[in-house]
Amino acid sequence: MKRHLNFEWILDLKRDLIFYIGSALIGWLYVGIIWYASHHFSNTREGSFSSLHVGDFEISFTLQLLVVTSWAILLDAPHIWATLGRTLFDIDEWNDRHFQLLGSFGFFLAGPIAISFPYFLAYGTAKYGFYIKKETMSIGAIAFFTFFRLWAYYHVVRQHWGFFSLYKRKANDYGTNRLDYWFFNLTMYIPLVMFITGSFYPRLRGYPNLGLHEPIIGSLSISSILYPLSARLYLFVLMIYLFYQLRLLLVGEKLNASKLLYMLLIAPLHFVAFSDPLFAAFITPIVTVGHNVQYHCIVYTYAQNKYQPNLNPKYKVPRTLFKNLTTYMIIGIIFTFLCYRGPWINWLKKITGLGLDKAVFHTVGMMAGISDPTKLKLGQQVTASMISGFALQHYYLDSIIWRVNKDKRVQKYLNV
Fold first, then answer.
1. How far apart are CA 266 and CA 219, in angstroms?
2. Where are the alpha helices (DSSP H) in 252-342?
3. 197 vs 63, 139, 231, 286, 333, CA distance in Å?
4. CA-to-CA distance for 356 and 363, rounded, in angstroms?
5. What is the number of alpha carbons within 13 Å of residue 112 lying toward its C-beta?
6. Who has greater pLDDT, 8 or 216?
7. Can you give the pLDDT at residue 362?
8. Which of 214, 253, 359, 406 could bridge across to 380 with cysteines, CB 3.0–4.6 Å?
């Protein structure tokens, strides 16, 4: 069978299996932890696996800690730092993308503007006798955090497509481009359609009512039409792709095994995360954690190949930031705590009087998909959205700095 399988690696066998392909196993680990909690605790979210006593202080290992907190603090926030270290401290990036780097800071204002707009609109219309209902004021927060979550998922999918394409590039696998394109995108996005049209969606907290389950003719709704169609399309796509791979084997063609192994771990994970209300409550950590690990590896590899061998003084700062893996990890953790518990958080808390600890907690919760933004007060919504600006800036910068086909530096330092 080996002669029918072609394994081509982006880095090498060991690092690819650990960081690029095998990273999805952490998402599967989260699935296992959540499944275990659901079968052993009457209150799945609050149930504690065990606890650790440090003096008089007790740490309870709940799902919140094992899944959401571990993901957000150890991997997700540091991977946002990786983008900043790779761009803001690289003189080449400033020379090539000066206006884009400066403009990226505007994303910190996107949330506050969207959330406060209905209030300014209501204030203006009230002068002319037109009054907007109080319950509609949260539409700005709902719109912003819905946009935020959709962009976050798109960001993850685009990175997976990037790695999928690199495995095709390494194997000189260009004969099935159109089939691969449709297979990849449909298996990534159909589960999202099934999620928002599924019967359990209206019962999930933290997700807006899209009106898809409301009857339009009798008992018929948009969701009752789209869900079964999506499920059948997903199965059809899988069958077509599997049959095509079997056909290649039968005619003696070598299969791109690296590409297939990559999708074997990722596609089912996304389907599982979106298909059950229990896992749906933790969608973002489940589908994002593998992306985080991949990203850390690709940024660190790029930085090591670019900065460490080059003693040019203009690379002095990034060479220090990416000196070794230990330094990289420590700086990432420091960045995390500066974001969530740093001096600027305490400063904001002091001058605004807001419960920023709750706002920061809900920022992570909304990123993870387990918190409802409408349950926060206006000040907390604005603060949470402003902290989310770090992620939005990351999504934007990430979309322009890894263009393998156009950027010669990326090709050179990633050896692709």
1. 36
2. 257-275, 277-280, 283-307, 316-321, 325-341
3. 26, 21, 11, 20, 38
4. 10
5. 11
6. 8
7. 53
8. 359
